[in-house]
Structure formats: structure tokens, C-alpha cells
Amino acid sequence: MSRLDRFLVSAGLEDLFPALTQSCQPKSVSNHRDVFLECGAIGLVKGLFRFENMWLEARGFRELVEKRWQNYEIRGNPSFILAKKLKLLKEDLKEWNRNVFGNVKTRKNDILKKVHIIDL
């Protein structure tokens, strides 16, 4: 293995990812190897919030956001108020999404199955 076929990492990175490993693939066209840095298993973040662009097209979405944002009564410094309002809005939007769109992933998979059946 050449000196170019290595990673240089800090001790801090090793502290964050104790299972950090490097692996090399066999040489291909180049005279160097593909080198992979693997950090081990990373747990999924539960309840990850994703803003969906389709919401912007939904009737009443912008008005809902404005109304909810104005109705939150939070006291504290500006950064605390912003963080708390965003957290409350996130929960409201998750509930609104379930009521308006349902489970989009399930619906998408169902539609793709139907398209696949039609294509056969």
C-alpha cells in the first residue's frame, strides 16, 4: 500500500467513532487503490423532521404556519423563543401532514406496485 492510499485522522475523530476502520480495494485502472473509511454502525435519529416541498403547494399551508407561529406565546431570550417556536411548529406540521397527506411513503409504494402491475 502506497503512502497515498491512507487516511489521516485526528484523535478527536477516533474518540467520536471508536470503530473507525480503513479498507482498500484491489488496484484497478490506476496504480492506486480505492480507500474506504468506515465509521461503524450509526444509530438512526428518532423522529427526524423533514420539510416537504409539496406542503408549499397545499391549500392553506402558509396561512396555517403564520397563524400557528403568531399564536405561540413563549417568553425568554430571542434564541430560546425561536428554538421553542420551531419545536412547536415541527409537531404541528407533523400532525397536519398526517391529517392532510397520510403516510406518503406507503401511498407511494402502493402506487408504484400498481404501476408495476399495469406494466406487466
Q: How would you describe this protein?
A:
The chain has 120 residues and is mostly helical. It has 2 domains: 1-43, no CATH class; 53-119, no CATH class. It contains 4 helices and 2 strands; from the N terminus they run H-E-E-H-H-H. It has helices at 11-16, 61-71, 78-100, 104-119; strands at 21-24, 35-38. Strands 1-2 form a two-stranded antiparallel ribbon. The longest helix has 23 residues, at 78-100. The N and C termini lie far apart (50 Å). The mean pLDDT is 85.
Instruction: Please write the string of helix (H) and strand (E) elements.
Output: HEEHHH
Q: What is the overall number of helices?
A: 4
Shape: flat
Count of all domains:
2
Q: Averaged pLDDT, please?
A: 85
Helix fraction? 40-55%
- Unreliable runs, pLDDT <50, ≥5 residues? none
Provide a brief overview of the structure.
With 120 residues, the protein is mainly alpha-helical. Helix content is 47%, strand content 7%.
Quickly list its features:
mainly alpha, 4 helices, 120 residues, 2 strands
Q: What's the arrangement of secondary structure elements?
A:
Elements: H1 11-16, E1 21-24, E2 35-38, H2 61-71, H3 78-100, H4 104-119
Antiparallel strand pairs: 1-2
